[in-house]
């Protein structure tokens, strides 16, 4: 995210001191927010002691812990190697290498079809990799805004696009941040005794998502794989 912002700043030709001030302010706010949460929310990094339905967790802590278990304790051989359950995922390395070739071949076979060269397989595959965390509505919003301003507006109003497009992008990011703060203070902070809405529900509607997939392991409420 920071690299994207720096790229936009460079395109807007914002002075270096402004970049420095913005970075200092942003990092200070991040640190202050994290410190405030860690010191005011009891058991924030211990989900087992939190009240049921509490939105306060430590996702970063879970990520680093899971990574240490996968790569340090279990080992990649027992995860993605011949002894693991996910060895077939290694084929995606080959798929990623081969995927751009059909697009390149089709662009050579049909040079009059200019749109074929616009198909970017690494971007498509990389973007789809975020689907488990994002939702389809996120992709629809992103795609519709991107097509509107980077296709139609770019073709018909290039002067406006060159002058305002990066400012628009920064404004959209700022709007998301402000709305996140507004939604938190108006809807989510008092969600326990306040209004109920879909954005504050942590349930992913998949009760089996936390079940083990290793054969023979029995967990209450989960199927046993053979």
Brief overview, please?
With 226 residues, the protein is mainly α. It has nine helices and no strands.
Polypeptide structure, described:
The structure is a single chain. With 226 residues, the chain is mostly helical. Among the domains are: 1-40, no CATH class; 54-98, no CATH class. It is built from 9 helices and no strands. It starts with a helix and ends in a 38-residue tail after the last helix. It is a multi-pass membrane protein. Keywords: Membrane, Peptide transport, Protein transport, Transmembrane, Transmembrane helix, Transport.
Question: Radius of gyration, rounded?
Answer: 23 Å
Question: Strand share of the residues?
Answer: under 5%
Summing up helix and strand content along with how strands pair, one would put the structural category as mainly alpha
Helix content: 55-70%
What summary fits the major beta sheet? none
Shape: extended
Task: Determine the number of helices (DSSP H or I, runs of at least 4 residues).
Answer: 9
Order of helices and strands: HHHHHHHHH
Distance between the termini: 43 Å
Number of strands: 0
Question: Which stretches are low in confidence, meaning pLDDT under 50 for 5 or more residues running?
Answer: none
Mean pLDDT: 77
Family: Belongs to the oligopeptide OPT transporter (TC 2.A.67.1) family.
Membrane topology: Multi-pass membrane protein
Subcellular location: Membrane
Keywords: Membrane, Peptide transport, Protein transport, Transmembrane, Transmembrane helix, Transport
